[in-house]
Amino acid sequence: MKNTLAGLGKLSKVIAISLPVLLSIFLVRMQSLVHRELSPPECRVKKWDIPVSFTQKQKAPLIQKLPVTCCQNDSSCMDEMLYGKISEKKALLTAIDRSLQYLQTANAAAAYQNYQVAGITRDRVLKSLKRFRELLLKTNSATELHQAIQREFVLYQSVGKDTKGSVLFTAYYEPLYAASRLPTAEYRYPVYRLPADLNSWPKPHPTREELEGADGLQGAKGKLRGLELFWFRDRLEPYLAQIEGSARLQLPDGTQTTIGYAGHIAYNYKSIGRELANDGKLPLEGITLPIILDYFQKHPQELNIYIPRDRSFVFFQENHGEPAQGSINVPLTAERSIATDKSLMPPGALALIRASIPFANPTGKIEERIVSRYVLDQDTGGAIKGAGRVDYFLGTGKLAGDRAGVTVSNGQLFYLLLKSKN
Predict the structure, then answer these.
(1) pTM of the model
(2) Residue 265: is its pLDDT beyond 90?
């Protein structure tokens, strides 16, 4: 569903995968980030890491292990948010129900038919999710839920990017932009519908620059003529919508609508944030979406230099207010949906993530906290590749975008499955 812009890493759908919402590391979350410790001192005994003996024996993307026993005074070990606001548990139940819906489809059956990790089947994922839902409704505290999981479940941990379980987390969101159904002197930059004949376009496909021009205003002169869907005021906004894979639009008459991913051309996403760093315009380490946006606010003329360097191009459809959708064709749930590489990870499955995530404090300032969250794997993205990447969906609007734009941390990813009866 996304390309991740602010989560900007996901280019919404690799050609073979449908990502209506597309979101993942915006213009980049650089991988040279400093590793953040995820546990207090008493937990730094590599509890959350994968023992070397495991990865020496197999090359699967997931390693089976027992649930991690929480260290004393480590409140980040459990999903305590679930037992605060009623809305948190409701949101997770909604995400679970959407995955249950998906898991009973023919698409899910096909996805799991040749899944590469032994012991993970659609039937087991389905039963595990149903049992977790029962426990979620019965339990009254994060500790009680964690203890039930320890009794009944095993974890399948991602080997990460280093075979020790270290996973790079970024985040994505659904932006809100002003847009118009008709071009005007104010609204000049379009996004486009999916060409009906895209599958017959000869390869290599035309690049972004060949389709819309360096300034983003030449689409009507070529293959995109007549495919304009909405017009934006700012050159960068339709590009960011492509990175995120979806957007909510505020129209001049006061109404709102939504657009979502419909397809893309046969080029991989290229981070313009990294291009800026390669050219020495910004330091590679610590680059975030807000830093990138600030740069282009000061140097708007350079948008026509850097946006064309990303040859990829995304097409949209109007979703008439429907929420952003993930690659398994169910709506995403803020804070409870993730995107991973679906060639490796089980679609629709229940997962536990543990990472440093930014939150807004009571004064509105963004602060990071190490947290554990139960989530559903419901999306993917062109820039989310390998066992060492997760993109976390943070919702819609400015605050979600502010948080997504600075989300970059190393953590762990686990899938929860009922213990085998064999």
Answers:
(1) 0.81
(2) yes
